[in-house]
Fold these 2 entries.
Entry 1:
Amino acid sequence: MQKIKLFDTTLRDGEQSPGVNLNFQEKLEIARQLERLGIDIIEAGFPAASKGDFQSVKEIASIVRGSSVTGLARSVTKDIDVAWEALKHSEEPRLHVFLATSPIHMQYKLKKTPDQVVETAVEMVRYATKRFPVVQWSAEDACRSDLPFLARIITEVIEAGAKVINIPDTVGYITPEEYGDIFTYLKENVPNIHRVDLSAHCHDDLGMATANSLAAIRHGATQIEGTINGIGERAGNASLEEIAVALHIRKDFYQAETGLTLPETKRTSDLVSKLTGMVIAPNKAVVGRNAFAHESGIHQDGVLKEPTTYEIISPELVGVKQNPIVLGKHSGRHAFRTRLVELGFATGDQQLDSLFAKFKDLADKKKEITDDDLFALVLQKQIGDEEVYKLDGLQVQYGMNNIPTATVTLRRGEEIIQEAATGAGSVEAIYNTLERCLDRELNLVDYRIQSINGGPDALAEVYVKIASESGEATGRGVAHDVLEASAKAYINSVNRMVAIEETKAKQEVV
Ligand SMILES: CC(=O)SCCNC(=O)CCNC(=O)[C@H](O)C(C)(C)COP(=O)(O)OP(=O)(O)OC[C@H]1O[C@@H](n2cnc3c(N)ncnc32)[C@H](O)[C@@H]1OP(=O)(O)O
Ligand SMILES: CC(C)C(=O)C(=O)O
Ligand SMILES: [Mg+2]
């Protein structure tokens, strides 16, 4: 059985999903869970992209031991140097360096001739291998590249020391048959190819990312790249959970397997969905809410008689299970902590105490505390940790024939700020009032709301993105009431904006 390595880029390509902005703590939570899932290589970020990315790659590289950790760099010495600083303490420092090889990217984006691209690629791989024991080289937009040129540049970067060669379908253009043919062509036309691992990196623009990745395996790929839940740039990346489960269920055909601990799949998927705010479609393969539900009578009858009549994947295989312990107001600390650990959260004693107090408050208002409620509690706690502005009071007057008016009390340290304003709707009235309290101009770029669980006592979760002259910041708020959740999300984004501005100000002083 062929062993396939899984390279997870949820924290890099996944974070390139529009609207996703993970903070330091959230990235650590995801990295720890990816390690538990059994991912071989975690791409923790793009260290040269920002101070925040640098810090999280560095931290993840120093704490994760069960998976290799890598970071992305352009083919420029500065990016490689920054990546080295972030990764040098990992067990086996590994760099992912890329350069585009398609005529369209070379001519219009890089403004380099093919010869210059080969020269740069070779020079940068040589430069990187002086420090990094493992260098992965990616031919960006490989699938729209001229194949003889692709074979030439790959031959040369292998000579320069690359140990892994990645063939990305950067724009999600290729079909399974063609992708397989590219791997076959490279195996036949790159004389030193036996020295490296061949990797596939697919995007889902035409809905073929999983099929293309599997085709690559049939034609010699030994590493597959993707993200959890398939999140990523534009239509997203290949879903690693789909590929791993497809290989497991159809090992008769693929004769290949991954090292994933498959029962960790659902938990990982839930964690990524909650922390990124990217909702999973109910019919999503492997991890969607409906993936194991049977709705129609004939199917239900069949499953009751013999589950395999309509189930090719057993729910237990990927960690989908009914929890026998129902959490509510009579639950104690042990059950509470056990469930948090089961959901993938590592909580210290101090954090547990304050979370437990919040849990009891919630249990007084709600009959049953679900996993989604627990996610919301933990997120709320993480969000609330660095509060510069705190919501102290909120009142909204709404009537069908009146202009909505909001009154808000904000606290900044000892200072109390109180204002009132109107708006076309209740949320706008709150946001106008908050802008007045803050005495600064902010643009609301995005506002999204979803309910956590159904029913009248469901929690509301709001995501916002705001912009000012200093940049953009996202925020989340969770509450029983949609207006309170809206206010909290806005204040959370303002607090993050303040943190960004303070970091920038400190950098300028230095
Ligand atoms: C296919 C992918 O997913 S690639 C990864 C994409 N991810 C990201 O871009 C997220 C992180 N990016 C960033 O934070 C920024 O783009 C940075 C910090 C990397 C660079 O920022 P800036 O220096 O302001 O450059 P900007 O992003 O505007 O333009 C990119 C530059 O890099 C060049 N470039 C692009 N790819 C590469 C490469 N692989 N190697 C070398 N140079 C490259 C472009 O040609 C352009 O150069 P130019 O300024 O000479 O025209
Ligand atoms: C950086 C590379 C590997 C990439 O994400 C792509 O080409 O899609
Ligand atoms: Mg990509």
Entry 2:
Amino acid sequence: MTLLLDDITLTYPDGDGRLTALDRVGLEVPAGTLTAVVGPSGSGKSSLLAVAATLVTPDSGRVVIDGTEATGLSRADAAALRRRAVGIVFQQPNLLPSLTALEQLQVMAHLGGGRPRDVRERAAELLDSVGLAGQAHRRPHQLSGGQRQRINIARALMNGPRVLLVDEPTSALDHERGAAVLELIGGLTRERGTATVLVTHDRGQLGVADQVVEMVDGVLAEAGVRGGTA
Ligand SMILES: Nc1ncnc2c1ncn2[C@@H]1O[C@H](COP(=O)(O)OP(=O)(O)OP(=O)(O)O)[C@@H](O)[C@H]1O
């Protein structure tokens, strides 16, 4: 199992007590498949992604990424595992205004090392696979919202992650562009064999998912399978 969340409980301080954001959550995501997480605002979806990304340590339970148990690692080792094996697509692209599309991707890889020539080739190939081969020289203000989100996705794939975590990628896009971005994420998942978790409010677009789970008050339940009714 490429991504395994086993019996995860996460609480936050809340006044005198604790608020349970994740309540004994279990999730298995095989390589090359996409799991969509739906659920109301405040139900714990972002917390789930943060735990899967090793950005937040749960109170109890295990996170296993590509065979390595992340829970219990030192901060430095968790960061190294994250760099090697996890790609994160945040809701807002947060692209650097002065860099071209190609450079946004190159910067990501330089942080992790790698020969400049290989990095450039990989960046160009990824831009091509998200449909932006012709836009490599453009800066963020010269691109549409949908194009910026595609760069955001390509950037997360630069270091060849085994696990891809995507938070609300369509919230700033209209229906049609949102659908195209979800199709793209589904296609990349299968092509690159990532274990992908996608948080979305958009229940109309879940056909791309192999598994749909629903978060309600920190509890995760199966909501349907590919082609299901969720
Ligand atoms: N750092 C924090 N400290 C305290 N409580 C928090 C913190 N982060 C989130 N929470 C609370 O934990 C619960 C789950 O929040 P989370 O952000 O995971 O929900 P969500 O489903 O992603 O919501 P949304 O769809 O609105 O983004 C909420 O009740 C929220 O108020």
